[in-house]
What we know:
- By secondary structure, the chain is α+β, with helices and mostly antiparallel strands.
- It has helices spanning 2-20, 57-64; strands spanning 33-36, 38-43, 67-74, 78-89, 94-101, 104-111, 120-130, 135-141, 147-151, 156-161.
- A hairpin with a 5-residue loop joins strand 8 (135-141) and strand 9.
Amino acid sequence: MKTYRFILSAGIAAILSVFVGCSDENSDEQAYSGNLIVYDYINSGGINKSIMPESPLANQIQGQQPETIRLTTVENNRLRIEHKNIQFNCAAKIEIEAFIENAMIRITEKDTDSSPTYLFCPYNLSYEISLPHDREYTLQINDKTPIRFTYNLGTDTTVIIKSK
Length: 164
């Protein structure tokens, strides 16, 4: 009788473990994809250094103040992205869209103003996104080279973008 109870108990435990399932050690890094909400968007507006893109001064002005991307963790466990000295037309209306698929974050900073322009200005953009987990991510902004970084409470990384 005792053997029967033991076998019955072991069988019930085995069945329950199938229904409950074993926890995966990496379950906090499960696949995640979707649009990310952009918080606290700040746009400096065109900084007063307008240039014509075909001008020989274009590379000199851009060379004096390189395009940079700084990633920092701020309150509310958000990642702040500061994109400085990015070139847009001087009357740009810039919108930010962010999407994540697993560990790949894609951000589009685009000018939604369709009016023709011949002058370009550097802009400083700052915005925040919430990420689902502390882990290593890859960030791609527009068509720039992807940046690998580790997101946690101490994230503070600056990348200088080389002009093409």
